[in-house]
């Protein structure tokens, strides 16, 4: 009874607050299957439609102002309509957007990335994180002459066939031929023994290990002390390349997690915040590896092209975003993350809840699990019904968030927004508490 009452109350409040979203969804579904061109954008009873964003907030067609803690799933770090990025794009695109040639914008952004990220001697630009990991893996295979790639269970590396078939819970893999994954190996994240065993056993055929320094889409699961160092040593000892996928994690430090943890890979991918809110992907690494693309000293360079690679307007937006995402900006937004984590811990305790929030810098993931989370398997135990209800409840309370409990902050926020966010999460937990006590009492202290 309590379960039905709470579900109905939250769903009815959502439908009442966002009727225009329903109208627009019913229109869009006639032209876009499912009414959303991005699978993650859909949720029941219907997805919310955003009209525009400004600073730390987005605004709906109904006129509601929502605090944005999705920030385009991590692609935005300075909030919406940042004046410096807007100016760079406006001035740049007025001169022309793409020339299919090398440009000053490519030079500036490539130089900045190579100066900041320890693993970057040389880089190449693509248009998405999926493309970046695809080409990082291709680079590793071409350079080593070996075919196998090892990834971590729960690690997300985009949607190309060879990595999409085993990324996380409920991913549908229809349409992916079995042959696309026959050279892909998997071991659990944070499992020292399994990693070492798999690398040593497969070393003659293993081109690279690809991994996120922490599991991003997999729940912000952080590496155990010494784990990344262990992976680096094992791969180096066995002549296997190490690829860090820092598309999501880069924002935690001006040099990414590799600088934060002091572990430098052979190849790296970045994206999201690097594009200043525009589409981008970057892959790169050691000079001797990346020189397989070099036309000046390689007889048959590895082929890599794309109409929109190094798109000049994106280069300008990315450079403007990164120039102001300096040490002070990173420290500021990471401090906001620390303050949010502190507020959540206090709320959990005050409500008598034994649930988790995994945090690093400006990224936090709430889990309805009653034990500290260090593996992808534990993330799968988080109660989906509670995530669904929390997501809708927070939307009703003016918080635009991600259904799986992920909170992503921006430099446009202040302590005022953090306090407001903590208050609304606390209100939502109190709203769900009767259901938790009735159906999920293992989450009660």
Provide a count of the helices: 16
Shape, please?
A: globular
Could you give the count of β-strands?
A: 14
Terminal-residue CA separation: 23 Å
Strand content: 5-15%
Task: Characterize the biggest β-sheet.
Answer: 7 strands, mixed
H-E order: HHEEEHHHEHEHEHEHEHEEHHHEEHHEEH
Helix content: 40-55%
Average pLDDT works out at 96
Q: Could you give the topology of this structure?
A:
Layout: H1 2-17, H2 19-28, E1 50-54, E2 57-60, E3 65-68, H3 71-74, H4 83-93, H5 104-116, E4 122-126, H6 129-144, E5 148-153, H7 161-164, E6 184-188, H8 192-202, E7 206-211, H9 227-237, E8 241-245, H10 256-261, E9 267-271, E10 281-285, H11 287-290, H12 312-324, H13 327-350, E11 356-360, E12 363-367, H14 376-379, H15 384-396, E13 399-400, E14 406-408, H16 415-439
Parallel strand pairs: 3-13, 5-6, 5-7, 7-8, 8-9
Antiparallel strand pairs: 1-2, 2-3, 4-10, 9-10, 11-12, 12-14
Helix pairs in contact: 1-15, 4-12, 5-12, 8-9, 13-16, 15-16
């Amino acid at each position: 009874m309590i379960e039905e009452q709470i579900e109905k109350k939250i769903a009815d409040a959502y439908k009442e607050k966002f009727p225009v979203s329903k109208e627009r969804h019913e229109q869009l579904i006639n032209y876009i299957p499912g009414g959303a061109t991005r699978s993650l954008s859909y949720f029941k009873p219907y997805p919310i439609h955003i009209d525009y964003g400004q600073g730390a907030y987005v605004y709906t067609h109904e006129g509601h102002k929502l605090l944005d803690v999705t920030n385009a799933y991590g692609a935005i770090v300075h909030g919406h309509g940042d004046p410096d990025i807007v100016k760079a794009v406006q001035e740049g695109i007025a001169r022309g957007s793409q020339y299919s040639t090398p440009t000053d914008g490519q030079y500036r952004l490539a130089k900045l990335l190579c100066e900041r990220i320890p693993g970057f001697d040389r880089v190449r630009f693509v248009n998405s994180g999926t493309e970046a990991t695809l080409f990082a893996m291709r680079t590793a295979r071409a350079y080593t002459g070996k075919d196998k790639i090892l990834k971590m269970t729960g690690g997300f590396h985009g949607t190309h066939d060879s990595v999409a078939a085993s990324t996380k819970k409920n991913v549908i893999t229809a349409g992916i031929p079995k042959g696309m994954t026959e050279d892909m190996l998997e071991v659990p994240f944070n499992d020292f023994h399994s990693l070492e065993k798999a690398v040593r056993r497969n070393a003659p055929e293993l081109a690279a290990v690809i991994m996120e320094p922490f599991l991003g889409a997999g729940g912000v699961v952080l590496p155990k002390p010494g784990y990344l160092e262990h992976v680096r040593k094992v791969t180096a000892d066995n002549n296997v390349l190490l690829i860090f996928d820092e598309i999501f994690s880069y924002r935690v430090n001006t040099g990414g997690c590799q600088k934060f943890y002091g572990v430098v890979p052979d190849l790296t991918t970045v994206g999201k915040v690097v594009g200043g809110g525009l589409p981008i992907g970057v892959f790169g690494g050691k000079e001797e590896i990346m020189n397989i693309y070099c036309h000046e000293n390689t007889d048959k360079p590895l082929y890599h092209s794309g109409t929109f690679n190094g798109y000049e307007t994106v280069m300008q937006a990315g450079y403007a975003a990164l120039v102001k995402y300096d040490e002070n900006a990173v420290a500021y937004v990471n401090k906001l993350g620390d303050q949010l984590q502190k507020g959540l811990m206090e709320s959990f305790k005050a409500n008598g809840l034994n649930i988790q929030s995994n945090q690093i810098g400006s990224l936090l993931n709430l889990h309805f699990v009653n034990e500290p989370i260090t593996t992808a398997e534990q993330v799968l135990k988080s109660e989906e019904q509670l995530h669904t209800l929390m997501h809708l409840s927070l939307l009703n309370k003016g918080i635009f968030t991600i259904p799986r409990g992920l909170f992503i902050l921006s430099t446009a926020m202040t302590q005022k927004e953090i306090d407001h966010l903590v208050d609304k999460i606390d209100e939502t937990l109190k709203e769900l508490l009767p259901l938790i006590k009735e159906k999920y009492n293992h989450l009660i202290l």
